[in-house]
């Protein structure tokens, strides 16, 4: 499974979805949509030769459990999933789907808890939110040895450069002004 790199457009609405299909991005992240739209969005994206990662926790009408994963695998066929839930990460890995564990860092306790969670779930990749803290990205990368995607609150190209220099392999952002970042 190929870990995504660079800037990953994070899609929150159909207008953004249409816009990203006009770019050269090969991978996109679906953050929010309704279950009734999901199959058509993924089918259309794949027809446009895009890889699609679905944030299973944010799909309206889809439960982030084994039945929700079964539905995604059989009916939707994404290239990967993002989730905050270790059980969903484990299910994705069992089914050879790229599994990205999303962790929220609020303080040093949440950092320690996240590192323990990552040891248990062993995702293919980690998405760290907020992604603005290069020193923490370095620390998580050193302790986990896993590729890191930085996400959340990144507002400038300089911030993208900083987190990539700190060891992030990618940056996920819904900020359309950053989608054309090139290093």
UniProtKB/TrEMBL annotation:
The identity of this protein, by name, is Glycerol uptake operon antiterminator regulatory protein
InterPro entries associated with the record: Aldolase_TIM (IPR013785), GlpP (IPR006699)
Which Pfam families does this chain map to?
G3P_antiterm
Which keywords are on file for this protein? Answer: Glycerol metabolism, RNA-binding, Transcription, Transcription regulation
- Species whose genome carries this gene: Ornithinibacillus xuwenensis
Task: State the function annotated in the UniProt record.
Answer: Regulates expression of the glpD operon. In the presence of glycerol 3-phosphate (G3P) causes antitermination of transcription of glpD at the inverted repeat of the leader region to enhance its transcription. Binds and stabilizes glpD leader mRNA.
């Amino acid at each position: 499974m190929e870990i995504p790199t660079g800037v990953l457009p994070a899609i929150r609405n159909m207008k953004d979805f249409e816009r990203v299909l006009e770019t050269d991005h090969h991978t996109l992240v679906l953050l929010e949509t309704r279950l009734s739209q999901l199959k058509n969005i993924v089918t259309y994206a794949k027809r446009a030769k895009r890889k699609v990662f679905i944030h299973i926790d944010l799909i309206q009408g889809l439960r982030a459990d084994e039945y929700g994963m079964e539905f995604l695998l059989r009916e939707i066929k994404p290239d990967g999933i993002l989730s905050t839930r270790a059980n969903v990460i484990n299910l994705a890995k069992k089914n050879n789907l790229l599994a990205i564990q999303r962790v929220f860092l609020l303080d040093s306790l949440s950092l320690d808890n996240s590192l323990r969670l990552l040891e248990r779930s062993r995702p293919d990749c980690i998405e760290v939110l907020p992604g603005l803290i290069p020193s923490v990205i370095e620390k998580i990368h050193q302790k986990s040895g896993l590729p890191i995607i930085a996400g959340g609150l990144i507002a400038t190209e300089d911030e993208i450069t900083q987190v990539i220099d700190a060891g992030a392999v990618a940056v996920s952002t819904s900020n359309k002004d950053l989608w054309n970042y090139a290093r």
